[in-house]
Amino acid sequence: MTGLGELLREAREAKGYSLDDLQSITKIQKRYLSGIEKEDYSSMPGAFYARAFIKQYAEAVDLDPQEILSLYKEEHPSPEAEAEEEVTPLRSRHRRVRSNNAMKQMMPKLFFAIIIIAIVVIIALLMKWTMNGKGENSPVDDLPEDNKVTVQQKEPPKPPVVEEEPKEEPEEEPEEPVMEQKVEVVSVAGDTTTYRLSEAEQFKLRIELSGESWVSVLTDNQEELTPGGAAVLKDGDVVDLDVTDQSQIRIRLGRTNDAKVFINDKELPYELERVDQTIYIQFEK
């Protein structure tokens, strides 16, 4: 035991809050708050949520959240890694392609046509040879006009035209459905709102300024991501970051009425009406 739960409980009682009161303030379920005071985190969905709930509890009773979290980290140096489950719908189709060999279908008909042509040519040559033989034995001029034989040669029949069967075109595969990102409110406490981004392939953050405002963007490891460091930005300034590799970021805004936050080009609505706000965004990959 680190004494973390006792510190929080004493601070809560000093404020005159019951667990029900604290549940209304932080929007954290009473059983989680009780578990924090007992330092029993087994009922919580994971180490990430345990740290987030402890931080919100500390802020609600005016304790330094970083000092309280340091006590938690003494007993839990390696936070439980949340399993990432990536569901990618896969569809496989087996396509049967029918192969038609036009030459194989044409060969029997072509062979038959060649035989017919050969027979006709042979008959024509025999008739011509017969006529030439008769001409040598008896002159044609001596025969009467009525006995002259006229041979008409018939044109060989044209080979039949073989029509090729149309080839089947391959079926077009259906397009894969496009995922629609979800942004949900996890909790609200004091000036802090925690959101969860899910069903998104990337996490791109943009902050647009329409006036002067303090802007700070921190990673879960307290690394400042704002170009040039946290500072007061002016009208027209834009902070554009790709934080896909982060599981959580913290945004601190001095004047929300002069700053708009966009997640993957979609504006994030503020849950609170406060001018200065702290925003946590969790990214579930």
From TrEMBL:
HTH cro/C1-type domain boundaries: 8-68
Superkingdom field: Bacteria
InterPro entries per UniProt: Bact_Cytoskel_RodZ (IPR050400), Cro/C1-type_HTH (IPR001387), Lambda_DNA-bd_dom_sf (IPR010982), RodZ-like_C (IPR025194)
Region of interest (Disordered), residue spans: 150-179
Organism classification: Bacteria, Bacillati, Bacillota, Bacilli, Bacillales
UniProt keyword Transmembrane, yes or no: yes
PANTHER family: CYTOSKELETON PROTEIN RODZ, PTHR34475
Listed Acidic residues bias regions: 162-178
Classification via CDD domains: HTH_XRE
Protein name per its UniProtKB record: Helix-turn-helix domain-containing protein
Transmembrane segment boundaries: 110-129
Species of origin: Savagea serpentis
GO MF annotation terms: DNA binding
Keywords per UniProt: Membrane, Transmembrane, Transmembrane helix
